[in-house]
């Protein structure tokens, strides 16, 4: 078998890290202002929030936002919302999960930037989320499943070196097989903080693809189950061993760029696309490293735009056959008054699928009918019935339209299977008695292009929480 040259130079990367180490410099401590009293006048509470923004700007060593500090309450609130969006993007670029408090309080509860060098460390950070589902597909038994129990732990070795991890138990019971549950490490990485524009990360990483793969806690999305596009086109949750850089470019832009273990083409299928090919850090083969990245923009209040990609060679289990995977994704989120809007489009390509299908047919006796292209998209709208800011609870009906086809384009000589060209209409409601607790109910109308193999509609009821 012809030996391929690795697509990534490890010794150059080591020299790159040594160069980053020379950039390290001590941070300066800042004393946090006391939180505003809920009963304080609006003027006092707004002034305190402005002081918190100023503190974060200093902590990140940023220049203060442009513009006059004065103005009406409405003008000051608009400026504050814009700056909070930028600073939230900066803290979220670190991808350290945290609870989802109310919008303005998220400024102090979200993952913090590198602390001051003399800042005292208290208890290690921790978090977690859980969810339980009841699913009833038409004509099938009703299933009650404690779907996920997840704990997250972190530790600060120093102000510049931090660790974060995520351990998940699926389906409540682990007996060594997927049918009885799974125990897996979805994240376990070290962060090396250098400066806002560039930082280093290594370990088990979540691929920065799409809206949900990195932020998939139950209160973070509408509906009991995750969208089909984020399951069958983007194989959430997608994680593996890797390393890379991330940072904040200013003016609302953040980025992540990782080298990660590639998927295994031997696990691709007609119905689930590349999902079965995830190596998940289990003796991951890295003859060729995959490259993945994401750019996100939060420079406009209440608007988030993102785009991401993943490219890799995936045929390391085959001789003289190395299908190349490419995935592109674009997404957007916007809040207008009481409305929430969300949309996402994703498409993936796999080269040499004709040879891949024939090779797997010889190995297994079954033609997997892997497509050379799969795509999916969804559009979602929700409306908050309760007045924001006046009560802690939230009640929001929503509707989501999804199209997803894992047989979008086939290699010559292979026919698409119509049962995998699917549409889903999800209508439901989400009630949050607390921002970190969600009770969800929805009904899904499912359709496909097959006249022989229909998809049953499904009723879902769930509860999820994080802390």
Fold and architecture overview:
With 467 residues, this protein is α+β, with helices and mostly antiparallel strands. It has one domain: Porin, CATH 2.40.160.10. It is built from 6 helices and 16 strands. It has helices spanning 10-21, 42-59, 73-92, 106-109, 229-233, 353-364; strands spanning 126-137, 143-158, 161-170, 182-195, 198-206, 239-250, 253-260, 290-297, 303-313, 324-336, 339-350, 373-383, 394-409, 421-434, 437-448, 458-466. Strands 1-2-3-4-5-6-7-8-9-10-11-12-13-14-15-16 form a 16-stranded antiparallel barrel. Helix 2 packs parallel to helix 3 (73-92). 32% of the residues are buried. It comes from uncultured Acidobacteria bacterium Rifle_16ft_4_minimus_37967. Residues 39-90 form a coiled coil. Keywords: Coiled coil, Signal. This is Phosphate-selective porin O and P. Residues 1-29 form the signal peptide.
Keywords, please?
6 helices, alpha+beta, single chain, 40% strand, Porin_dom_sf, Porin, globular, 16-stranded antiparallel barrel, 467 residues
Short description, anyone?
The chain is α+β, with helices and mostly antiparallel strands. The chain contains 6 helices and 16 strands.
Question: Which CATH class is shown?
Answer: Mainly Beta
- The averaged pLDDT comes out at 82
From the helix content, strand content and strand pairing, which structural class follows? alpha+beta
The neighbouring-strand order within the major sheet is 1-2-3-4-5-6-7-8-9-10-11-12-13-14-15-16
Secondary-structure arrangement, i.e. CATH architecture:
Beta Barrel
